[in-house]
Amino acid sequence: MDELGSALRHSDEPNFRVSPFLYMPEGKLGSAISYSILWPTESIQGGDECTRDFLFGIGEEKQRSARLTAWFHTPQNYFIQEYEKYRVKLQSTKFSPLPVERSATNSVRRSDGSALRVYTDIPQVEEFLTRPEFVITTEPKNADIIWTSTQVDEEMKKAIGLNDQQYINQFPFEACLVMKHHLAETVQKAYGAPEWLQPTYNLETQLSQLLGDYYTREKAGVDNLWILKPWNMARTIDTTVTQNLSAIIRLMETGPKICQKYIEHPALFKGRKFDLRYIVLLRSMKPMEIFISDVFWVRLANNTYSLDMRSLFEYETHFTVMNYRGRLNHMNTPEFVKEFEQEHRVKWLDIHVRVEKMIRSVFESAATVHPEMCSPTSRAMYGVDVMLDCHYQSKLLEVTYCPDCTRACKYDTEAVTKEGEVIKGSDFYNYVFGCLFLNETAHVSPL
């Protein structure tokens, strides 16, 4: 909106509509000139004030009153009450443990004893899946295993001739884990408000509760820094850290997001922020057969961590994913663990046990809330991102479908939890497929 459009005041009963218009006389963005097109929606007289609706087309079903808080003082007590009701509901939620069942998953074998045919669109799988039990095929309809980065739905199955006997690296309804708003909802339905999940709100449906939480923190004089994440994007695209309530509300206009309490005091490594990427292999949901790869890696921010408000706009201070932008400073995991233990006087094994317990809980949440995830022909690999707070307690960041495993394939490393067992990067997909399809446990640990 230009100066003219911004000068119009709000009214719930406006007499004008206004729309931004971008004109590119040379057909290029560099030549663009922006205008506000203004037109009356009713008869007006000389001297009448021109007004517009700041939330045109947005009614109460889209949280209109709460969204007006971005511009106007709205009743804080109402939002605080909504938050209190929500908090009580979460606190009253108790997890019902899953029944203990014996493993029932069999190895996948062809009746004639020949190699399992694998169709994939992932270059690392083509390059590094080299064991003789598997062979790459370019025809998906002839494959025993479909390992793809693309969502496989019924329409796609029909289009390329897939059948229900083929194994696919996706579980039904796995969106309850890999989409951020569904992940939070799944965990909250199962556990309420576990310590390992930061307070999280779906801005499309829970803005009133978020406002109440914000005002409660403001009255208590505690930290009010939040991070906004798109529902379904990776690599920190369109992610914002802010303590400005108006900015939080207005950022809803750029697409559906969650708003999550920022971990303002994370554990640091030599003064820098970091997070951890774990690889989880899911063989079965019922009974639950879940494994964690002995290979995990650390992702380090480039700049010294700071809570100075000016630093919130510095990607290399507050974010750790540098292999797509910024300067990537790879550090081998055993080296990181050794130096972290020395710096903080802690035992990594204690931290690792807590992380494993948390990851198991995440997938138990999905199994409890969404039993329809069960599928005998599904085997999947997920990336689970974890951060540690200043007390070395694990915090869940997100779960990623078909994670980028370039680092796992590129670097040889040692299993820090298994007395230095050497793991070759080139063997990564060999043992992943061995675990998921041949019931092997090399270089993985059951959860």
From TrEMBL:
InterPro entries associated with the record: SET_TTL12, TTL/TTLL_fam, TTLL12
GO molecular function, one term: ligase activity
Gene3D superfamilies on file: ATP-grasp fold, B domain
Domain Tubulin--tyrosine ligase-like protein 12 SET-like: 1-73
Organism: Forsythia ovata
Pfam family name, one: SET_TTL
Transmembrane annotation, as ranges: none
Record's keyword terms, sorted: Ligase
Protein name per Swiss-Prot or TrEMBL: Tubulin-tyrosine ligase
Domain of life: Eukaryota
